[in-house]
C-alpha cells in the first residue's frame, strides 16, 4: 500500500517528467520541488552546534525503519532525479523547502496549511516537535530565481528558521491574543501515521544554511515577469481561485503578464448556430444563462471564471493572456491519467457503443508550447483558441482502428440522435504564436503508446 500509493507515484512521476524533458532539446534546465525531508533525516546527530546544508541527504534505510513514508518518497524521488540527470546530461536544480506556510491564494488549504489549522483549532495540547519553517513567497521566489540566474545549480535548502511548537504559539499569542492555542505538551504521535516530517521528538534547535544565492528571505515575491494560473472545475472555487491569483499578481509591480488556462468550454457554448460553414474564433464567449439552463456546470465554471478574470484585469491594468484549449490528449507524463485521458480510456476499453458527440481535439504538447510562447512573445495578448480539428467519435475510432487493429473499439452509437455538425475553430491567432498543430493521427498514436508504456492500456 505504502509503495503503490506514496513511493511509486513520487519516483515514477519525477522520472516521467525528466524523461519528457530529455526529449526536448530546447529545455535548458529542469527545476524540481523536493523537500527538507530528503535532506536532514539520517543518522547524523542534530545538536545545537549542527548546521544542515545542501550536502546532507536523508537515509532511505532509516526512513524505512522509522516508517517515515513521506520522507522516504521524497528521498528516493530526488535520488532518482539526480541519477537520471547525470546520465542524460540534464541541468537539474532541486529546491528543498521546509514546512511551507504563508498567504493562501487557492480556494482550499494546502497540506501544510491544514496542519497549521489543526494547531489553532482549540486543541488543549501540542506535540513536542519542531518545524523547519519557510514562507511560501520565498519558495516561489526561489523557483523563479533558479530559472532566471544562469549560475544557479544543485540543491537549495529553504528554511527561515527551525522552531519548536511553543515558539510558534508564543508568536501567535502575541499577534492574536484571542486565539485559543494549546497550552501544554502531549506525547509524540506514532511514526506510522506521520507524514509531514515536522513532528520530531528532539529538544534542540538546528540551524539551516542555504538559498543565499536567491537574496534575502522575507521579501515579497519580486523579480518575476510572468505568472501562470489554472482555473479549477467547480463554479465558486473556479471564480474565487482565479481572482485570488490575479489579486496576488496585482500586488507585485514586477509581474508584467498573467497567463490563465481556460477552455473552449468558455468559448463556443452559446445560442449561435454551429453549422458546417461556421468558424468559431476568439471573439466568441459561452453564454452563462444557456450553460445554467442545460446544466453544463463545467462550462459555466470556466465561463464565469474567465469573465471575472477579464473584468479584474481591465480594472487593475493587468496584461492578461487566456489560453482556451479543447479536448487535451497526448503523451502522459504523470503517474495517473488526467480527466481527459480517463475519458479517452473509457472509449478504448471495449465498450460496445459510443456517444454521438464531437471532440475539439488538441495535443497537450501544443498547449504547453502555446503557454511558453504567450510568455516569451512580447506582442502576445488576449485569448488563444487551441483546436487542431473537430472530430466525431467515429473519426476517432477510424484512426485508432487503422493504427491499432487489435483494439476493441465500440462499433455503434449509443443512441439514435442525429450527428452534430462539425464546425471549425479558427487557428489564425494560435499560429501567430508559432503553433504548428500536431495532426490528430500523430496525437492519437502517441497517446496510445504512452498509455501502453504506463500500463494503463494493453494492446
TrEMBL record:
Coiled coil feature spans: none
Record carries keyword Oxidoreductase: yes
A Pfam family per the record: Epimerase
UniProt record similarity statement: Belongs to the NAD(P)-dependent epimerase/dehydratase family. Dihydroflavonol-4-reductase subfamily.
Species annotation: Carpinus fangiana
MF annotations from Gene Ontology: oxidoreductase activity, acting on the CH-OH group of donors, NAD or NADP as acceptor
Domain (NAD-dependent epimerase/dehydratase): residue spans on this chain: 5-153, 221-378
Keyword RNA-binding: no
Protein name, UniProt field: NAD-dependent epimerase/dehydratase domain-containing protein
Keywords: NADP, Oxidoreductase
